[in-house]
Amino acid sequence: MFDSGDTPPLPSRIAALVHAHFDALPQRSKPHVYPDGSREWIPMTGIVAVLSRSGAKCLSASHIPRCRGLVLHDCHAEILAIRAFNYWLLTECHGLLAEEKITDPSIQTDSQPNKTQPPSSPFIRKRERRNDTQTPENSTEWPPFELQPGLKLYMYCTCAPCGDASMELCMASQEDATPWEVVRESSSARSHEEMLDGRAHFSLLGIVRRKPARMDAESTRSKSCSDKLALRQVSSLLSCGTSRLVAPTESAYLAGLVLPADEINATGFERCFGERGRMKVLVGRTWAGRKEEGTIGYRFHPFEVLSVPAEEVEAQWAFAKPKNNIPVEEDGTESKAPPKSKPGNVSVIWVAAPSHAHSCAALSDTGSKSLPSLRRTTTGLFENIINGVKQGHRATTPVVRGASSLSRAKLWALVRNIAQPSACDDLGISGTGLADDTVLHSFQQRVLKPSTYGDFKLVESNSVDPLGVRQEAMREAKSVLKGWVRNSGDESWGLDVLVDPQKRKR
Predict the structure, then answer these.
(1) According to the model, what pLDDT value does residue 365 have?
(2) Which segments constitute the A to I editase domain (predicted)?
(3) How many C-beta atoms lie closer than 10 Å to residue 325's C-beta?
């Protein structure tokens, strides 16, 4: 593909890196190839160079209230990748804070002597703040950490995201690619929820769609990957919980989306994500909170779409969804049909370990007794997921042992542990240890106070809460993405759901 002395372009290097990590996974985490030649196919997504992800599954709307924070609602590869990125970022912050306590000359821990060199991370840093005389009154209390300036995040996907960006590709895969007109009922005759369309209604473009599914399957309220990625161009890759700890700087936004060249339709991608498409009214819009502080704040940050030659991906990815068209020979006869295939039902999650590892109750369950080392990269999390829970468990009767580390309950527990460093096994520090830092103390108060997940996501009434700025930005973005319906019903539970009534015997 390249001469020996040539350096492959950036998109090719990103794709090769993600594929190399996937190839190093254990065989049980990969799609099956059966003795008759038939095989499973699965989409894969990775955020370089932190994680790799595969999957394609969502829960129906009626199942959501039974989840109690223990089941993943959306297992499409792109969404798992974003959740895993937030998990990794939280562990990176957690490790750095824990290391600071160990190296703090005023604190002597039980496990390690004091060190003199302050800890650091190549990915995050403590945010530089103005002193009290320089800080305007009632300014937004932005979180204590930020991603390193100049850091860029790229997402690689083996297929186009479902939803609006891929509608032209869906049309082209039909025997008749002409969009058919659909007479839609008035808004008074149809509920707002019914206006979410899956794969159908090809003539309706630039709208929010729910995740596609079989025609006989119960509908879901999970928005398509296209719509969720479009929203992330405003809200950044940071989740609600991570936004309590990491400030929304430019580095927190996706710099580029990397795809095989034959999975990119310029018209669809520009309409869905671009500055001239449905997001155009947000161009130049910023949400910086009260008394803007430097480069911190939310903004419309469109990512770049980068392509990898299709033949490169084909050579590296044996689990792609087969094309519908059967190749034709030069003499006009059809080639032999490809082996039968079906979508795989296992989602594999792999996340790199943080720069500063330490023992912690929230990190003790890494998903496997033996963790693989991929490409000399230490594993922080490795899980196989089926129907939103760990393999071997049932989503219909969720239990804490089956909950993924990326589930709502487990991620909330991790955020709380960061606010309570005394909960970590290897620090040997009494008390919280955060009260000496005003911003960290504010983070602690906002995290430890809520009793339910719904309360945890609520924004404080005062104007200095940074989640208020995030909420305002997302509200305006969702109004532009017409037809956004909230996927509610899984908020009224507390962290007592993580108490296992039947602990395994040691």
Answers:
(1) 66
(2) 54-493
(3) 10
**Residues 6 or more apart from 404 whose CB is under 8 A from it?**
72, 349, 367, 383, 385, 388, 389, 390, 410
CA–CA separation, 155 and 259 (whole Å): 9
- 1: in domain: no
pLDDT digits (tens, 9 = 90+) for 254-313: 999 999 999 999 999 999 999 999 999 999 999 987 655 567 899 999 999 999 999 999
- Helix or strand holding residue 106 (H, E): none
SS3 210: strand
Q: How many CA atoms lie within 13 A of 436 on its CB side?
A: 9
Residue from 498, 438, 388, 462 nearest 144 by CA: 438
Tokens matching residue 286: 């910023």
Tell the residue number behind the tokens 């795809």, with chain if given.
Answer: 259
Coil/strand/helix, residue 323: coil
- pLDDT surpassing 70 at residue 335: no
Strand partners, 58: 74
What is the structure's pLDDT at 485? 86
Q: Closest by alpha carbon to 15, among 62, 47, 57?
A: 47
Question: Where does 387-455 show beta strands of DSSP type E?
Answer: 389-390
Does the CA dihedral 308-314-316-322 come out positive or negative?
Answer: positive
Residue by residue, DSSP assigns 348-396 as: EEEEEPPSS----GGGS--S-SS---BTTB-EEEEEEEETTEETTS-SS
Which residue in the list 40, 78, 311, 330 is annotated as catalytic? 78
Find the DSSP H helices in 76-141: 77-103
For the chain, the domain total comes to 1
Element (H, E) at 472: helix 466-480
Q: What pLDDT, in 10s, does the model give residues 437-492?
A: 677 777 888 889 899 999 999 887 666 788 999 999 999 999 999 888 888 889 99
Q: Helix 466-480 to helix 225-235 angle, to the nearest 10 degrees?
A: 140
CA distances from 194 to 52, 100, 184, 189, 424 (A): 34, 51, 11, 10, 47
Burial annotation 172-185 (CB, 10 A radius, 16+ → b, else e)? eeeeeeeeeeeeee
Q: Is residue 331 part of a domain?
A: no
Q: Is residue 3 part of a domain?
A: no
506 within a domain of the structure (yes/no): no
Secondary structure (H, E, C), 262-281? HHCCHHHHHHHHCCCCCCHH
d(CA 153, CA 171): 31
Predicted pLDDT at 413: 94
Backbone angles phi, psi at 16, to 5 degrees: -65, -40
- Decide if 78 is catalytic: yes
* H-helix or E-strand spanning residue 104: none
Task: Look at 443 and 143; give whichever has higher pLDDT.
Answer: 143
Token output for 351: 């996340």
